[in-house]
Amino acid sequence: MSARIDSPPPLSPPGDVSVRPARPADRDAVLALMPRLEAFGLPENVPAGSVAAGESRVMAEAFEQLPEGGALHVAVDALDRVLGVLFLETKHDYFTGLRHGHVGVLAVVQEAEGRGVGRVLLAAADAWGRAEGFDRLTLSVFEGNGRARRVYEQAGYRADLVRYRKDLT
Questions:
Q1: What are the structural domains, with CATH classification, of the chain?
Q2: Would the pTM of this model clear 0.85, i.e. be above it?
Q3: Plot region of 133 (φ>0 → left; ψ -120 to 50 → alpha; else → beta)
Q4: Can you give the three-state secondary structure of 83-100, one letter per residue?
Q5: Which value, to the nearest 10 degrees, does the dihedral of the CA atoms of residues 113, 134, 143, 169 take?
Q6: Are 88 and 71 spatial neighbours (Cβ–Cβ below 8 Å)?
């Protein structure tokens, strides 16, 4: 069976994935990834579309002006197609006030899911955090996002604070 002339070539093997700083030309591809943050299903109190909309605003702002101490990277294949995005922030620990790195957004295109792109992006986060002199990185993940939680745990992350919620209305 022959491929259609206008179909894109298949994704490159995982070894061909590299991470680079995001460029203005990557903006649309990055924004198109934001619905992936809801692909696993959201908790009942989170309206559909709200996570994607909120993170789209954050990403659009990051393309205009990165927050101080932040970084925005993309994972690309050998043809420079965006496979994933990594938004990094500098935060201050609530208890100690010390600076640390925070993975604000990590998303991977559906076609590359399970191919190691998330792990490559997390390794880039580690390198960024070490270069910034941080002693730790944090991230947040919805409890029901089991796949992401497993990836994070395999990368050495562990839960250290659990947030509870009580609806009042």
A1: 17-154 (3.40.630.30)
A2: yes
A3: left
A4: EEEEEEEEEECCCCCCEE
A5: -130
A6: yes
Closest CA to 105 of 50, 33, 49: 33
| Whole-number pLDDT of residue 6 | 47
27: left (phi over 0), alpha (psi -120 to 50) or beta: alpha
The tokens of 108 are what?
């991977």
**Are the beta carbons of 124 and 111 closer than 8 angstroms?**
no
Specify the pLDDT at position 167: 84
The mean pLDDT value for 103-115 works out to 95
- pLDDT, average across residues 114-122: 95
Distances 77 to 18, 103, 104, 142 between C-alpha atoms, Å: 7, 22, 22, 28
H-run or E-run covering 64: helix 50-64
Distance CA 156, CA 148 (A): 13
